[in-house]
Amino acid sequence: MEKVEIVLNSLPMSGGDGPNSYSKNSHLQRKTTSLLKETIDKLILEKLDAKTLISGSNTFRIADLGCATGPNTFFLVDDIIKSVETSLRKSNSSKPEFLVYFNDLPENDFNTLFTSLPQDTSYLAVGVPGSFYGRVIPRSSVHIVVTVGATHWLSSVPKEVLDKRSKAWNKGKVHYSNAAKEVVKAYERQFGRDMGKFLEVRAKELVSGGLLVVGMCGIPKGMPFSNLADSVMYTSMAEVLIQMQSQGLITEEQADTFNIPIYSASPEEVTFLVETNGCFTVESMELMNPAAWLKRAVNVEDVRQWMICIKATMGSLFINHFGDHILDVFFDRLTEKLVGLTEKIESSYREKLMLFFALKRK
Amino acid sequence: MEKVEIVLNSLPMSGGDGPNSYSKNSHLQRKTTSLLKETIDKLILEKLDAKTLISGSNTFRIADLGCATGPNTFFLVDDIIKSVETSLRKSNSSKPEFLVYFNDLPENDFNTLFTSLPQDTSYLAVGVPGSFYGRVIPRSSVHIVVTVGATHWLSSVPKEVLDKRSKAWNKGKVHYSNAAKEVVKAYERQFGRDMGKFLEVRAKELVSGGLLVVGMCGIPKGMPFSNLADSVMYTSMAEVLIQMQSQGLITEEQADTFNIPIYSASPEEVTFLVETNGCFTVESMELMNPAAWLKRAVNVEDVRQWMICIKATMGSLFINHFGDHILDVFFDRLTEKLVGLTEKIESSYREKLMLFFALKRK
Fold first, then answer.
1. Could you tell me one molecular function GO term of this UniProt entry (chains A, B) (predicted)?
2. What is the complex's ipTM, to 2 decimals?
């Protein structure tokens, strides 16, 4: 089996099902998944020849990459299976068995995922530990690969950003938002390598005619990241860290080497990467509106809920870098800071920020 | 997908990798696995047409049912893969990809399993949560199913044994050893149903020509269980429970309703079940000597080590029934009792107590 060498950030969503867990604090992600339901349904009915794909084995295989601990992954998978069943009914096919690969990093809390699997699933469920920037599924075996809210996570922070001698050294910031152009370029190149690898390995895993469906952080081509609400958050994060450093809660070294490996891609740059890869046709490539609250006036409660979700999603990144004793202090201060910035958040660009694309394996 | 209704005991091995964990206390099981290595290697080379099986997909699929948390499952799987590779080299076949299904109950500690997966595996690994008395793998898709030390666990304690009005009511005992013949019969019937179901679902999952390899607790036909060292243990367990009940540490109800759902099968009864099923040919069916220490003089340290393994293996059964506060007390008392019975253990029948069988899917 081909092995891929990558430096991985250990970034599982917060495990368990306690008050700070991802499984209890992923309603924003749930909204995203719901938004995609109709789009994915249409894609499956119009672009997927399910009948031909299952001829032979009569097993239909689906993978959710970056599934976390549930429950969103179960809703997503259920929706996909219903669409495939509708498609098969229309073509008078016999009902296949469904196998679902739930994939995430080995550090993900698969115990919570498995024990919260619905009792009456209509599919066989397996968990696949491993980075989706490497091979995780047998070759030419999967019919639909879906990943929502995961591929904006880079495989690692770009090396240059951590190198004091580099122009891309990102001291005093936690992201490429508002950063030097060398930092932006370093993130962009890292995304290019990661998404390039992602497409390369998925091309090996998908059967010919299979679909790769992706929802991730997006941005219109040419728009500076600083226009976005997330930019307000990243700037505030850096400010909180500097404050905590000045109080001796964290070291300067810790603060300077902390960067969040998240990248928002434009449709144009993903299209370029897909064309370079050459194994897929583009069936859909669009920027969509993300979770509903961003469309309307932002209130204090919205900000608090947002931060609870961010803490469940990014918490382990902070814990791995700073230790777990700073997590609550950091997020309490961050939340208070952002609560004072609702107007700035509200006036940020908040529309087409989810990049959705669907590719068909040639 | 066909769903199977069974009442399951939640019986994961002790999770994590702490001092009481299964992963740290499964060396007796490791010895069993080592003993089987040569036998399994020979089977694969002589009875499996690996070249024909992989034609088409070039993916070779292996399942370990009841894998627990490792590391024994990794050794076992490695050995199997090496044998298959040898077989394929001999027939000048191209190297396939290997997919390994690691199966256990959903309550098993898959997090420990996944994070302790060797870094340099030559296979894609997936975890499959679910009882192996139901379907866990897509139909006609797996080439070798192996299960060591798991199928002597019944899907549940036989109902009659828990029924006060039944002749099989097993008051004052924890097992069918030395019990009324109705109790023995109830366990025997339960094993027949469970193994019947096991063979039925495996027949659906294995490809034609695929192998089902099982190592489990066995016993020569007609031998009373009371001849065995395990019988000394079960009798002592019952005595400790009665003592704890008299001291008010557990209730009479708790003591009377506790039974260990483990059954030792003879080659003859498994052969009968395989013939009844009709989907397999018997390639091997034999009683082997189990773990090495049972062959020689038994000393106090042997007994202590044995009990540490039993605690890691059966601990959750006690915790589920009595609560976790009694676990240490119970096993401390049990160990002390058995330490005083080394001669009795030594004079027990200790030879052909592992039933090994290999079946080929027609």
1. methyltransferase activity
2. 0.87
